Each structure stands twice: as C-alpha cells, then as structure tokens.
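step: validate -> pass
step: tokenize input -> pass
step: predict -> running
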Amino acid sequence: MQAVSAMPFAHRAVDPTDHILIVDALYRFGAGQDLSDRALFESAFAHDAVLDFMQPAKRLGVDLQVFKSRTAIADAIFAAIAELDTTHTVTNPRITDYDGRHATLTALVEAQHLPRADHTRHLLLKNIYRVELSRAVDAWVIDHMKIDNVWMEGDAKVLFPSAG
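step: predict -> pass
step: emit ->
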C-alpha cells in the first residue's frame, strides 16, 4: 500500500476560485458533448490542445491517432457522437500540480453512449483522465488530455461502428 505522503498532490495551495475553474474545464468537455453544444465543448480546450484517446480506442478494437488542435478534437468527437445520446459524469477530480498559471488534474469520468434511435444498445466507459491545463484570459483550458479506460460494458460498435 502506498503511503499517503507518497501520493501526488499540489504542493502549492490551490486558490479556491481557480480550483472551481480548473475542474470546470472538464465539466465543459463533458457537458458540451451531452448538450450537443460545440461552442461549450471547444471552450474547454486551448487552440493547440492535444487529446489522446488511443488506449480506450485500442481496447474497443480501433486504432486512433492523437487528436491535435481544438478544431481537430471537436471535429472528431462531434462526428463520433452525431447520432448518439451521451452522459458524462465527472468524479474524484484532484489537482495534482498547480502554480497559478498551469495545473494538472486527474479525475474519473463515466461516459454513457446510446444510439439516439435505439436506446436498447449502449457503451458505458469508466475512464481515468489526466489533464494538463493553463490559465487563459477568461477561463482555464485544457492543453493536453490523456484518457485511459479502466472498464467498459456494452457494444463497442455504438461508438465505433467499424470496431472489430
């Protein structure tokens, strides 16, 4: 068992307002998908952001490259969920590094995907998110997001019709 003192945590106290705004970037990522609100979704990312969904995709039988840029990320995600209803639940957000301009966040995210025309099928993912963020003019934004899948249930073809 790892000692609590050996677990990563922000060595500098996180300003309470920043704490809320840092976690809000992850909420905007999920809510933007769930509400089909591309502007809200894009507001979560820096212009040159990177999103790595390679490990979950591989587990689902699909080879993906890392998405690079806010536009590429939004194009790929919104194409994948165009015919889906989704819900994203963010839990256990922890800020593990913070200097007032940059932060690192980890969280558990449960993502449910259902074909809009057939809710008898689904894909439920429980993922660990590792997120690097920076302070922008009016919000904290995601610079780099890595998603690792812990477990899944359901039909991979819901999210990736070509999954094998």
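step: describe -> The longest strand covers residues 84-98.
step: cleanup -> pass
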